[in-house]
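Session log. Operator J.P. requested a structure for one protein chain; no other inputs attached. Running the standard single-chain path with token output.
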Amino acid sequence: MIEDQKKLFNLKENDHYLNCAYKAPLLKTVEEAAIKALIRNRNPADITPLDFFKVTEEVRVLFGKIVNCLPSEVAIIPSASYGFSSVLNNISCSKGQHAIVVENDFPSDYFSIKKWCDTNNAELKTIKAIDNLGFIGEVWNNNIINSINKKTAVVILSSIHWMNGLKFDLESIGKKCKSVGAKFIVDGAQSVGVLPIDVKKFNIDALICPSYKWLFGPYSLGLAYMGNCFNDGTPIEESWLNRTNAIDFSNLSDYDPEYNPNAGRYNVGETSNFILMPMLKQSLVQVNSWLNSDLQDYSKELIKPLISYLINLGVKFENDTYFSSHLFSLKMPKEFNIELLKENLIKNKVYLSVRGNSLRVSVHLFNTPKDIEKLMEVIELTKSTNRTSRVNIK
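Structure written below.
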């Protein structure tokens, strides 16, 4: 099994960062790429016309290897919301059709499909999670699949739920979408780069990924896979870089009306971003080097003591079919003082996300057993303080 990769990062020695789902730490190689890019940009005479295209093409190749698609099927986007708009603006709707979203999906996903439904006078169906003795995975997935029919125009959902890491059966959902002619749009923010994903095998029509989480890239850059159904679509902006004659700087005013083929037409303007693009390239080089390692095995082994400890406290977890070991939620017992836990986490430099009465833990190769041990210490401290407070009150 792969060893921890903490040496590749500049994380503070006494910090326990268990929040990659919030934002990934920068790799040392990504920092170095940023510094080199800044220095290079002191002298714009060093930037040639070819430099406007070279790194972006390398990035498209690297991302294609991660999700199993051609470089020509990859678009450079600035954000997930931009990617959703690009896709949904090219999906039509017949009278009586509807779209499907899951309960509590990420706001960008929800607002994008809600606007599409309002524009097209289509119903938006929200498939809710049903708690079955503390487990929701199997019933939720089945309900999503059973809700897809010939009147479904679009299904949009995260590859895993961003709040609790619950896995959605993308292969079965994609197969059902294809059988009824529905477009399948997936938000890969919380899984691409750390969970295997195959856009062809899963019949995904569009996969939208910001880069600053599990792809370890910079903020304000993302990547999107656009399937064949979007090859002739209309982008949401008219960038000169997205025209077939863009590389011919001496003849740009010939105004070529043709877009770049396939996904290239959807690239955001100023795609070349001479600072962020080299950073993204380096992050994808590293992610690709990890592809043959079982990252889920690493995180599963890492969190094993935490899971055992919490099960003894009465915390329940989904079975392996629906559980993501790199991102998961801990629904603490009702008597647990969450506000006190928050205070103790901050005091002890343990960083994760608190959602209501739950903790969202997200780990990667930069995490070590010390991080998990510290989290358990803080939970135990809070539990003991909680118990002492109740005794004093009595």
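Operator note: The first helix runs from residue 28 to 40.
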